[in-house]
Amino acid sequence: MRLIDLPKILDERGNLSFVEELTQIPFEIERVYWIYDVPGGERRGGHAYRENQEFIIALSGSFDVLLDNGNERKVFSLNRSYYGVYVPKGVWREMNNFSTNSVALIMSSTPYSKADYIYNYEEFLQYAAAKTQSGPDKPKQV
Length: 142
Ligand code: TYD
Description:
- It is built from one helix and twelve strands; from the N terminus they run E-E-E-E-E-E-E-E-E-E-E-E-H.
- By secondary structure, it is mainly β.
- The chain has one domain (2-134): Jelly Rolls.
- Strand 7 and strand 8 (73-78) form a beta hairpin.
- 22% of the residues are buried.
- Residues 31, 33, 35, 44-45, 112 line the site of thymidine-5'-diphosphate (TYD).
């Protein structure tokens, strides 16, 4: 859970930024989606992914991304399109404070899978604690 600055190509015709998988961000991009026309006061997210990793950019406007790895909570305020926040797998995330006309662009490491979601915060805490005990990527003992 950290901010990643993106390349910024500035010239008199305007600005350009880009993302290449495994270069600016530490995963291969399997899916891209975007969130827009969020009514004032609405929240998005409120879940964690078991496997999916994300990179979130505020393409337009601003919003906050709250990340919680079970030990530590951080709020990232995104409001420029030349940086974004990296969300590793197994991190609880919420998005709120969307400004009018904001657009969130999200790059994901896996195709959409409902089974990958953890929607219950208590369940997430148990999952995060179990992961910490067994090591981040160790397969379960049988
Ligand atoms: P969800 O991931 O819960 O949105 P958020 O995290 O922004 O609150 O997804 C909302 C709905 O959209 C849900 O019914 C599943 C669907 N969806 C897809 O079909 N494909 C996707 O890639 C995503 C992200 C969501």
